[in-house]
Amino acid sequence: MLSLALRQAQKVVAEFFPITVDAPLIEQPRGVGGFSGTTIYRVTSDDETYCLKRLPDDVNLARFTELGLLLEDLAEQGLTYVPVPLRTRSGSYVLKDR
After folding, report:
1. Rounded CA separation 26/6 (Å)
2. Cα–Cα distance measured from residue 6 to residue 4, given in angstroms and rounded to the nearest whole number
3. Long-range contacts, stretch 68-77, CB < 8 angstroms, 24+ apart
4. Are 6 and 39 in contact (CB under 8 A)?
5. Is 1 a residue whose pLDDT tops 60?
6. What is the C-alpha to C-alpha distance for residues 89 and 57, in angstroms, rounded to an integer?
7. pTM, entire model
8. Planar angle of CA 83, 89, 95, nearest 5 degrees
9. pLDDT tens, residue by residue, 29-83
10. In angstroms, what CA-CA distances link 55 with 9, 34, 37, 43, 58?
């Protein structure tokens, strides 16, 4: 049985990946998390691996969006090692579950 956190992660991943027979694998590695209370998930789909971050309730969403725009801009300028956040279908970097 999946934990509530993993079921929520599946809902978020469905926002970025079409539901297919080869659904993405979602794992929550032990001992991995952010300094701010962020929960980290590893999402593997085909040959790509992504990081899904569940932000704490008190995170500044405007600041998080600014950082996403900055990373996107740096990648567009040719920095290939910059981790660029994916956008939701609606164009946001953040998908709220509440």
Report:
1. 8
2. 6
3. 68/93
4. no
5. no
6. 22
7. 0.66
8. 70
9. 666 666 677 788 788 877 778 888 888 888 888 888 899 999 999 999 999 888 8
10. 12, 9, 7, 16, 8
